[in-house]
From TrEMBL, chain A:
Organism listed in the record: Sinosporangium album
Taxonomic lineage of the native organism: Bacteria, Bacillati, Actinomycetota, Actinomycetes, Streptosporangiales
Stated name of the protein: Sulfur carrier protein
SUPFAM superfamilies, A to Z: MoaD/ThiS (SSF54285)
PANTHER family: SULFUR CARRIER PROTEIN THIS
Classification via Gene3D superfamilies: 3.10.20.30
Stretch forming the signal peptide: none
From TrEMBL, chain B:
Keyword Transferase: yes
GO cellular component: cytoplasm
Protein name, as recorded: Thiazole synthase
EC numbers for this chain: 2.8.1.10
HAMAP family linked to this entry: ThiG
Family: Belongs to the ThiG family.
Quaternary structure and partners: Homotetramer. Forms heterodimers with either ThiH or ThiS.
Keyword Cytoplasm: yes
Catalytic activity annotation: [ThiS sulfur-carrier protein]-C-terminal-Gly-aminoethanethioate + 2-iminoacetate + 1-deoxy-D-xylulose 5-phosphate = [ThiS sulfur-carrier protein]-C-terminal Gly-Gly + 2-[(2R,5Z)-2-carboxy-4-methylthiazol-5(2H)-ylidene]ethyl phosphate + 2 H2O + H(+)
């Protein structure tokens, strides 16, 4: 199954969750937030939210700015 | 005490800092400490797994409240999503709402900003919108439930100072939420002028982070904001066309 994580294609096993996708990028769990197809997925739901083919996952954090 | 109160929270410092443009986190850290700020903006971006250190660590270490912004958003929809992600990542309902119209001027888009402000207020956010120096828009955003309004002095990063002091005064006169002069500050006298005009606070970043000596400029801005605030409270003398002797010859 192919999902886009921060604009890059990743191959994930079927049934992979949001938590699995986040772990592909970072081991951090605080200071980051996730949206799937432009909807925020609360941290408490990462483990139980499965991804689907071609989902767009955005993993954001705070950086210098403004 | 002459505290700044935004959304029911008190701040002893009236200087809000941005974090963009600092050459390193060490320089930023020194500048933030010298500025005396208690509230500082950060942007939300895609996580970079290779990044070392975080601006959040600096703010946490210095006990500075984080104010996420929606920099980089061009539409209300993007800004609302970014604010919601910031609330999830940082655990704060505060947001500096910034919706820009084009890359060349980075001027705020009033229509998208107002739309996003209404949606975010309805969603429980403490909304601080970045806007042009437009008194009518400032009033409408206050009526929509924003916790402050943040008119620009001049375009972001331009250092052109306050281009329309009269409009800033009009915004201040009509507002019952804090007015925070945001963007355009180039040097200390600009920050002092903002406070003399009656602004409740000043937000700046580039003027400090890209100064030759950021820490020294941060200290200068701190002094300027304090001096400008004191002058506003003290009440300046009226301007006259001709001299008035301070030691008259006769009674």
């Amino acid at each position: 199954m192919n999902v886009m994580i921060n604009g890059e294609a990743h191959d994930m096993p079927p049934g992979a969750t949001v938590a699995y996708a986040v772990q592909a990028l970072t081991s951090a769990t605080s200071g980051i937030a996730v949206a799937v197809n432009d909807e925020v997925v609360r941290r408490s739901a990462w483990d139980t939210t499965p991804l689907s083919e071609r989902d767009r996952v955005e993993v954001l954090t705070a950086v210098q700015g403004g | 005490m002459d505290d700044l109160i935004i959304g029911g929270e008190k701040f002893a410092s009236r200087l809000i800092m941005g974090t963009g443009g600092a050459p390193s986190l060490e320089v930023l850290d020194q500048a933030l400490v010298a500025s005396g700020t208690e509230l500082t903006t950060v942007a939300m971006r895609r996580l970079d797994p290779a990044a070392r250190g975080s601006v959040l660590d600096v703010l946490r270490r210095r006990d500075i409240k984080v104010l996420p912004n929606t920099a980089g958003c061009y539409t209300a929809g993007e800004a609302v999503l970014t604010a919601r992600l910031a609330r999830e990542a940082l655990g704060t309902p505060w947001v500096k709402l910034e919706v820009i119209s084009d890359e060349r001027t980075l001027l705020p888009d009033p229509i998208e900003t107002f739309d996003a402000a209404e949606r975010l207020v309805a969603d429980g956010f403490v909304v601080l919108p970045y806007i042009g120096d437009d008194p009518a828009l400032a009033r409408r955003l206050e009526q929509a439930g924003c916790a402050a309004v943040m008119p620009l002095g001049a375009p972001i990063g331009s250092g052109l100072g306050i281009r329309n002091p009269h409009n800033i005064e009009l915004i201040v006169e009509a507002a019952s939420v804090p007015v925070i002069l945001d963007a355009g500050i180039g040097t200390a006298s600009d920050a002092a002028l903002a406070m003399e005009l009656g602004c409740d606070a000043v937000l700046l970043a580039t003027a400090v982070t890209r100064a030759q000596r950021p820490e020294l400029m941060a200290a200068a801005m701190r002094g300027a904001v304090e001096a400008g605030r004191a002058a506003r409270l003290a009440g300046r003398i009226p301007k006259r066309r001709y001299a008035e002797a301070s030691s008259p010859m006769s009674k």
